[in-house]
Write a structure and sequence with these properties.
mainly beta; Jelly Rolls; eight-stranded antiparallel β-sheet; seven-stranded antiparallel β-sheet; globular
Length: about 270
């Protein structure tokens, strides 16, 4: 009997440990009224307040139908980035108790980026104006400054960059020493893609990967990544902005931020 009790305790401890490692940080499925402006909307989970900072009927609009990808759980509608270079911002809720082991003190409050932690990000994206070249996708930020200085707190760009032709990863530093760019191999065209990023945070840097169209529910092999960024300058992130510019339009949907692949690419 004593052996059974010990074995049961070990199994329960193992299950609790693995359960705690999986945390959905934030999700946005854009389940809002069709043709509404994203600015001011307040759905999804894991966020601190509504989307803000944009202009009425500018930046991103909600359209039907939603984007889909084989095997991926989806819901709601989708956002359409209009190419007018209007950014819309949102804070992640870093005060939740289940995130305590993941956050550190960034320049602008509690943020993701604590050494020894891992964060996964995924979304569906397609450049509907292809072959027009311009930027689109998402930026991660350490705090938000509205107005002409909004770029000062951008830390990562995921999606496509100005004049770029492939899905990529950029460490943003406005020309400073922390800047870096890693190009993928898949053309950023009108094909709906599931982009999945992973960031392993270290003491003075981070390591990053991007996979294009991995199978939902099955953690991908590092060697199968479309790009690998072995050393990204240290950064923190607690907010995002979305939008596109240069007249390039993008469909964007199913934004997930979590601590495991299954968090961000759940199989339906």
């Amino acid at each position: 009997m004593k052996v059974k009790i010990i074995l049961f305790s070990i199994i329960v401890g193992f299950l609790n440990q693995n359960f705690s490692q999986a945390t959905m940080i934030a999700y946005e499925g854009f389940d809002y009224p069709t043709r509404s402006s994203l600015n001011g909307l307040n759905g999804g989970t894991g966020w601190k307040g509504a989307w803000f900072g944009g202009k009425a009927n500018a930046g991103s609009l909600i359209v039907d139908p939603n984007m889909t990808f084989t095997g991926l759980t989806t819901s709601g509608k989708k956002s359409q980035q209009k190419g007018d270079d209007v950014r819309i911002f949102r804070y992640m809720d870093m005060e939740r108790s289940e995130l305590a082991s993941l956050v550190a003190d960034g320049t602008h409050g509690k943020a993701l980026g604590k050494p020894g932690t891992t964060v996964w990000v995924s979304f569906l994206i397609a450049c509907t104006s292809y072959p027009k070249l311009a930027h689109g996708g998402i930026h991660f930020m350490d705090g938000v400054e509205l107005g002409e200085n909004y770029k000062k707190t951008q830390r990562l760009q995921l999606g496509r960059q100005n004049m770029g032709t492939h899905w990529l990863l950029v460490r943003v530093d406005q020309g400073g020493p922390a800047a870096g760019k890693w190009d993928g191999t898949v053309t950023s065209d009108a094909t709906v893609r599931l982009l999945v990023y992973r960031f392993d945070f270290k003491d003075t840097s981070a390591e990053g990967w991007m996979w294009v169209d991995p199978i939902p529910g099955q953690a991908p092999n590092d060697g199968k990544a479309d790009l690998h960024a072995p050393k990204i300058a240290k950064f923190f992130m607690n907010a995002i902005n979305v939008g596109s510019g240069g007249g390039a339009t993008f469909d964007f949907d199913e934004l997930r931020i979590g601590t495991t692949f299954k968090d961000v690419a759940p199989q339906k």
